Amino acid sequence: MPISLPDLPYAQNALEPHITANTLSFHHGKHHNAYVVKCNELTAGTDLENASVEEITMAAHKKGDQGLFNQAAQVWNHTFYWNSMSPNGGGKPTGAIAAKIDEDFGSYEEFATQFKNAGATQFGSGWAWLVLDGGKLKVEKTPNAGTPLVDGKTPILTMDVWEHAYYLDFQNRRPDYMGAFLEHLVNWDFANANLAAAS
């Protein structure tokens, strides 16, 4: 089966006023979909034609096929990003992820500072991540289509800092977008599920 564009896990207007339906219609319907289409074009008739997005991403990385990696990794990253947000999200975490953040960062505030700094200091396009690496939570950033998957790390959350993720709503104010992500959108239930699955 070719890769398909997954539905958003909420209505296009569900993240308003922080991220508008206009942004999601372009970001999901145009950008994400374009990666899906191109990934299918590049794998058609190959041994990866029926592989999962994760398998294609890993295989392209291993082979050094940057063109295919860029498309497949962006399909995977975006799907993970949609689920990293929730209409009822934001604020301090609860449950196991809250305890783990306190354990590994010292406090939620320290995590938030590191996470926003990762997004702010990613020059150009890329991603800020909360990952589990060797049993410990860490904040990382990746450029362009980069993903912690290929480094054997477990993604817990991600924030897209490509300009198309926020420009229609925040223009050049990336810090305001990152603040809104943590205060109003971040999906701690998804983070808890990813942490549980990795344990």
UniProtKB/TrEMBL annotation:
InterPro entries: Mn/Fe_SOD, Mn/Fe_SOD_BS, Mn/Fe_SOD_C, Mn/Fe_SOD_N, Mn/Fe_SOD_N_sf, SOD_C_sf
Reaction(s) catalysed (UniProt annotation): 2 superoxide + 2 H(+) = H2O2 + O2
Protein name: Superoxide dismutase
Top EC category: oxidoreductase
Gene3D superfamilies tied to this protein: Fe,Mn superoxide dismutase (SOD) domain (1.10.287.990), Iron/manganese superoxide dismutase, C-terminal domain (3.55.40.20)
Keywords, sorted A to Z: Metal-binding, Oxidoreductase
Stretches assigned to the Manganese/iron superoxide dismutase N-terminal domain: 4-86
